[in-house]
Amino acid sequence: MNTIKHMQAVSRLLAAHASVFVIGVALVTFFFPHLFDWVRGTTQTVILGIIMLTMGLTLTTDDFRILAQRPLDVLIGTSAQFFIMPAVAWLLVHVWHLDAPLALGILLVGCCPGGVSSNIMSYLCHGDVAFSVGMTCASTLLAPVMTPLLMQITAGEIIHIDAVGMFINILIVTIIPVTIGCALNKIYSRKACFPTIQSLMPGISVTCLAIIVGGVISTVHDDLLEGGVMLFFWTFAVVFCHNSLGYLLGWFAGRAAGFNTAKKRTISIEVGMQNAGLATVLASNFFATQPLAVLPCAISCAWHSISGTILAGLYLKNDKRKEQAN
Predict the structure, then answer these.
(1) What is 124-188 written as a DSSP string?
(2) What is the C-alpha separation between 195 and 134, in angstroms, rounded?
(3) Of the candidates 84, 83, 189, 64, which has an alpha carbon nearest to the alpha carbon of residue 133?
(4) Looking at beta carbons, which pairs linking 188-194 to residues 24 or more positions away fall under 8 Å?
(5) Taking a C-beta distance cutoff of 8 angstroms, is the pair 173, 241 a contact?
(6) How many C-beta atoms lie closer than 10 Å to residue 151's C-beta?
(7) Contact at 8 Å (CB) between 109 and 84?
(8) What DSSP designation does 112 have?
(9) DSSP state of 114
(10) Separation between Cα atoms, residue 174 and residue 38, nearest integer Å
(11) CATH classification for the domain delimited by 36-316, as one of 3.90.1720.10, 1.10.760.10, 1.20.1530.20, 3.40.190.170
(12) What gap in Å lies between CA 213 and CA 209, rounded to an integer?
């Protein structure tokens, strides 16, 4: 029993400090680049599948009912998700004249569905959590079709896009694990041990994400050394602009739709935070000839968690300021 309590405590700690842990693993890997050499190909895909399985284990049939109960909200949010982020990525690629590898990476991040930790950020900033879960479910379910299609549109001129292969890959690493997780939740949710299992999922998810990032750093280590500090900061600047504009334009999309404050915060976070772990795996599997394409994806994995936490904090600070003014 004590062992389980310790594991639950570790899981909570990892969930609360996910970005710090991921960045720490990335830094360690930079100095010990062979630490995650084993995270390649099928192994990387399986690890992402585990992340999506943990997501499925926390979803219930009530979460999917939101899609039917609030179709207009979810339609507006998901449309914003799959229009704003690919469009912003495309503009950054052309305005900044990015080289092919970095262009492919940022476009892939933009074309992926919403991130799995966006629901936590919506909860922290008093957003509409049900709406957040609905958007995450919808964008994830649409990802096998929308991500290859959007990549064909935005990146087809840069490199050949294997749309069918990408569709199958996304299906395998997202829809199937999420479905299995949901089925297990439905079957075993009344078992006494199941809540304990669910409580361990955040820690497992963060650990798997850190392993994926470690694998990416191992892959691009030599290229990073060759490119120097400027390559990293240049890539980070692109990721920062993409993510920040996603938050801003997502909020304005909510305002244009007449959403209340909670829903505007949620759509802002949902649009800005992407499933960069999926982007990382897709970049590794489909753009092997452009190894640096995974760099924007890996940086996004860490930065989106940090920026989401910062944005949630700013929203809460704004609430306190209004309370004090009244």
Answers:
(1) HTT--HHHHHHHHHHHHHHHHHHHHHHHHHHHTTTS---HHHHHHHHIIIIIHHHHHHHHHHHHH
(2) 22
(3) 64
(4) 189/60
(5) no
(6) 25
(7) no
(8) S
(9) B
(10) 22
(11) 1.20.1530.20
(12) 6
State both tokens at 306: 């940090």
Q: Report the sign of the C-alpha dihedral through residues 53, 54, 59, 64, in that order.
A: negative
Q: Which residues of 4-31 are buried (b: 16+ CB within 10 A; e: fewer)?
A: eeeeeeebeebbeebbebbbebbeebbe
pLDDT, tens digit, 9 for 90 and up, residues 287-307: 988 888 988 998 888 788 888
pLDDT in tens, the chain (326 residues): 578 888 888 888 887 777 788 888 888 888 888 888 898 878 888 888 888 888 888 777 777 777 788 889 999 999 999 999 999 999 999 999 999 999 999 999 999 998 877 877 787 778 888 888 889 889 999 999 999 999 999 999 988 999 999 999 999 888 898 888 888 888 887 887 888 888 888 888 888 888 888 888 887 778 777 777 788 889 999 999 999 999 999 999 999 999 999 999 999 999 999 998 899 889 988 998 888 898 899 888 878 888 888 888 888 888 888 777 76
Q: At how many degrees (to 10) do helices 61-69 and 176-188 cross?
A: 110
End-to-end CA distance of the chain: 48
Q: Which residues pair with 274 in a beta bridge?
A: 114
Nearby residues of 37 by Cβ (< 8 Å), 6 or more positions away: 215, 218
